[in-house]
Write a structure and sequence with these properties.
The structure is a single chain. The chain is α/β, with parallel strands linked by helices. It has a single domain, classed as Aldolase class I (TIM Barrel, Alpha-Beta Barrel), CATH 3.20.20. Helices cover 26% and strands 19% of the residues. The strands form two sheets. A nine-stranded mixed sheet has the order 1-2-3-4-5-6-7-8-9. Strand 6, helix 7 and strand 7 form a beta-alpha-beta unit. Helix 7 packs across helix 8. The radius of gyration is 20 Å and the shape is globular.
């Protein structure tokens, strides 16, 4: 899919190593995941949800990956012991209602191993939501077939995926999406804002509208994390806010993700909104519409 004649091909920039990666500005673990591991292969930063990392393998090693530190020299799935320890921890902590199975790319596990994990989690009464994190819809859409879709449907597993540019939504990707959605599987997209890849208001609008067309819910627009060797992907927050301001009134509300900054050291997601939309006055509020028209509302 790479256009080698285009130095700014979005897929090329995301997938091929770049000499700028020798600039090691940033952190290996900006989200402090290593220190948020109470047991097994868990990352826990919130009281009622957590992550199980089941593999370090992916169909494509994205150059902006937040878990570059885990890639190493060998593709390796988490051991049965670590998975069982993770599930036992969840079983013993009744505040956990939501579990995200990720990696790496969780769908590189074979169906029988996924089924085993889903089955054990489904038997924990306080676990209400099981999600799976995968980029295979874009990078290995042939992984998505009826057998997998039926498995996800059986255990009511929700899918979080990542399309960063409209050019990734290929006919093969659309077929994978439709296989999941037609089986009743909920699919949400978590896009990463990346310099020269998609830091353009029209690109973001087009990508999210295309996702909506194929019944994928635009969920998050992540501000890029300060990951070691990825400074060339960094974007100023003002650019993200400009994009979100542009989307107001110019596209459906269903096409607007939440723009999010992940606070360092694992302090959680911070939603970012254009502050010029609202001003506080002594007697009320002043709002700006998407056409920059001003309206006022008195305090109740």
């Amino acid at each position: 899919m790479i256009d080698f004649d285009n130095p700014n091909c979005p897929i090329k920039l995301q997938s091929l190593p770049d000499i700028r990666e020798f600039n090691e500005f940033g952190q290996l673990d900006p989200m402090n995941e290593e220190q948020s591991n109470p047991s097994g292969k868990i990352t826990r930063r919130y009281p009622n949800k957590l992550i199980i990392n089941v593999t370090n393998a992916c169909p494509m090693y994205c150059r902006h990956c937040q878990r570059r530190r885990l890639i190493g020299n060998v593709d390796k799935n988490s051991s049965k012991k670590d998975i069982d320890e993770s599930i036992e921890f969840i079983k013993n902590n009744q505040t956990i209602r939501e579990v995200l199975i990720t990696g790496g790319d969780a769908l590189l596990l074979p169906n029988d191993k996924l089924k085993n994990i889903f089955d054990k989690l489904s038997n924990i009464s306080h676990v209400e939501i099981i999600r799976i994190g995968t980029r295979t819809l874009a990078t290995l859409p042939f992984r998505i077939d009826n057998e997998l879709a039926l498995l996800l449907r059986k255990y009511k597993v929700q899918v979080s995926t990542q399309f960063n540019h409209a050019c990734e939504i290929t006919p093969e990707a659309v077929k994978a999406i439709e296989t999941l959605v037609d089986h009743g599987v909920l699919v949400r997209n978590q896009m990463v804002l990346l310099h020269n890849v998609n830091d353009d208001k029209y690109c973001i609008q087009k990508t999210n509208e295309k996702l909506q067309k194929y019944r994928v819910i635009p969920y998050y627009l992540f501000h890029p994390k300060d990951i070691k060797s990825t400074q060339h992907f960094q974007v100023d927050i003002s650019k993200g806010l400009e994009i979100m301001k542009h989307l107001e009134g110019r596209t459906s509300g269903m096409c607007k993700p939440t723009y999010v900054y992940n606070a360092p050291q694992g302090l959680g997601k911070v939603p970012l909104v254009p502050i010029e939309n609202i001003e506080y006055a002594e007697n009320g509020y002043k709002f700006s519409t998407w056409e920059n028209k001003t309206i006022k509302k008195k305090r109740n």
